Task: inverse folding
C-alpha cells in the first residue's frame, strides 16, 4: 500500500528551494508514494515542471477571502458574518506594515493568517514543510500526520528569525532537515534541545537533466560580440542576493575598460530599485535583468563565468548547477561559501564589496589559463546528488 505524503511550500515561483523541490519530486518513487502538494499561492514558473503524479490541494475559501486586499477582504468576511477572521485580517495587515525584520513579521503575523486555515481533512503518513517559517507553522498546526519534517534552506541566523518563536514549532517536528553542515551547526547552536532531530540532505541536482536542458535554445539568445565576456547570476531580486553589489562592481569594471555583459535571471521585489541603479550608473547596455526563466541552463551554458554575490546563503543550488556545466565561479564570502566552493580551484571566493567582486571578475577575465584549469577540474567531478533522496526515504521510514 502506498504511503500518503504531503509537501508544503508557499509557491513555485523562482527560487533555490522551489527548484530543489522540483528536482526532488522528479526523483520521487511514485510506486511507493501518493504525493499531495499544498501551496499558499499555487502559481509560479516551476508549475510546468511538476510531475503529473503530484496532486495540488485546493485552497480553502476562508483563506481565499483572507488574502484579498484588506478592504475587500474585511467586507467579504463581515458579509459572511465572520467578524473574528475580519479582525485577524486587520491585525495581519498591521503586523506586516510595521517596520523591522521581514522574517520576524512573517512569524508574528502567522497566528492571524493561521485562523483562515482549517485543519486539513486528510490524514498523511508523512508531511514535509519544504521551507522555513510559514510552511513549518502550517505543517505543525494544520496537518494530521504520523511523521512531520521541516526544511530550513538558509543560514538561520542571517534570516533574522526569532528562535524563541520557532522553538514551539520545531518541537512538533520529528526531523529538521537543512542543506549544509554549516547550516546544521548554526541550528544546533540556536536549538540545542533539537540536536537529535537535525539532518543534512543536500539539494538534489541531476547532471544528466541539466546538460540536456542546457542544450535547448533560450527564448532569446545573448546578443554578444566576439570580444565580450559574459557573466551570469541567478537568484531572486531580493536584498539577500546582493545584486546591488554586482551592479556597482559592473560599473567599476566598465570604468576600467572591460567589455562584458552581466545577465541576471530572477524576479522579485527589488526589480525597480535595481533597474534605477542600472540606469543611474548608465549600465543599460551591460547589465540586464532577464526576469524569470523556467530553464536557465542555456543561458548558463553560454556564459563565461557564474557569479553569486549573496549576503548569505544556505546551499545555493545554482552554484552546483554552474559546476555541472563547468563554469568558473565567483562567490562572496558568506558563511557557507567554503562548503560550496574550493577557492582558487573551482572559482574564487571574494569579500562582499563592490571592489572585491570587480577585482575577482577582472582576474578571471584576464587569466584565460586559470579559467581553463577550473573548467578542466570541474569536468572531472562527480556532481550528481540524486542519491540524496535515499536520506529522505530513510527518515520517512
Result:
Amino acid at each position: 500500500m502506498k504511503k500518503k505524503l504531503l509537501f508544503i511550500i508557499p509557491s513555485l515561483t523562482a527560487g533555490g528551494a522551489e527548484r530543489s523541490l522540483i528536482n526532488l519530486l522528479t526523483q520521487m518513487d511514485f510506486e511507493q508514494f501518493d504525493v499531495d502538494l499544498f501551496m499558499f499561492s499555487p502559481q509560479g514558473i516551476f508549475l510546468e515542471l511538476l510531475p503529473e503524479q503530484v496532486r495540488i490541494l485546493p485552497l480553502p475559501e476562508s483563506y481565499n477571502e483572507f488574502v484579498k486586499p484588506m478592504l475587500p477582504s474585511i467586507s467579504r468576511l463581515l458579509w459572511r458574518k465572520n467578524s473574528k477572521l475580519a479582525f485577524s485580517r486587520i491585525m495581519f495587515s498591521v503586523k506586516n506594515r510595521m517596520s523591522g525584520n521581514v522574517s520576524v513579521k512573517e512569524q508574528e503575523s502567522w497566528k492571524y493568517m493561521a485562523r483562515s486555515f482549517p485543519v486539513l481533512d486528510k490524514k498523511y503518513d508523512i508531511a514535509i514543510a519544504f521551507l522555513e517559517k510559514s510552511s513549518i507553522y502550517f505543517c505543525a498546526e494544520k496537518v494530521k500526520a504520523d511523521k512531520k519534517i521541516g526544511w530550513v534552506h538558509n543560514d538561520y541566523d542571517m534570516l533574522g528569525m526569532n528562535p524563541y518563536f520557532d522553538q514551539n514549532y520545531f518541537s512538533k517536528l520529528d526531523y529538521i532537515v537543512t542543506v549544509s553542515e554549516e547550516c546544521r551547526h548554526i541550528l544546533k547552536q540556536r536549538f540545542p534541545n533539537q540536536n537529535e532531530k537535525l539532518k543534512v540532505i543536500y539539494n538534489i541536482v541531476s547532471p544528466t537533466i541539466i546538460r540536456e536542458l542546457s542544450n535547448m535554445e533560450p527564448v532569446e539568445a545573448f546578443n554578444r560580440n566576439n570580444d565580450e565576456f559574459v557573466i551570469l547570476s541567478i537568484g531572486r531580486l531580493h536584498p539577500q542576493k546582493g545584486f546591488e553589489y554586482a551592479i556597482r562592481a559592473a560599473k567599476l569594471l566598465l570604468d576600467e575598460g572591460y567589455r562584458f555583459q552581466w545577465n541576471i535571471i530572477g524576479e522579485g521585489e527589488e526589480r525597480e530599485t535595481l533597474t534605477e541603479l542600472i540606469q543611474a550608473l548608465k549600465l543599460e547596455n551591460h547589465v540586464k535583468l532577464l526576469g524569470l526563466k523556467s530553464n536557465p541552463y542555456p543561458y548558463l551554458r553560454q556564459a563565461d563565468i557564474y557569479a553569486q554575490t549573496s549576503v548569505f546563503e544556505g546551499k545555493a543550488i545554482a552554484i552546483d548547477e554552474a559546476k555541472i556545466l563547468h563554469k568558473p565561479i565567483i562567490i562572496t564570502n558568506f558563511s557557507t561559501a567554503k562548503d560550496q566552493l574550493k577557492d582558487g580551484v573551482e572559482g574564487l571566493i571574494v569579500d562582499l564589496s563592490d571592489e572585491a567582486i570587480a577585482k575577482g571578475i577582472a582576474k578571471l577575465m584576464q587569466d584565460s589559463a586559470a579559467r581553463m584549469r577550473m573548467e578542466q577540474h570541474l569536468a572531472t567531478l562527480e556532481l550528481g546528488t540524486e542519491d540524496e533522496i535515499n536520506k529522505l526515504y530513510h527518515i520517512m521510514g
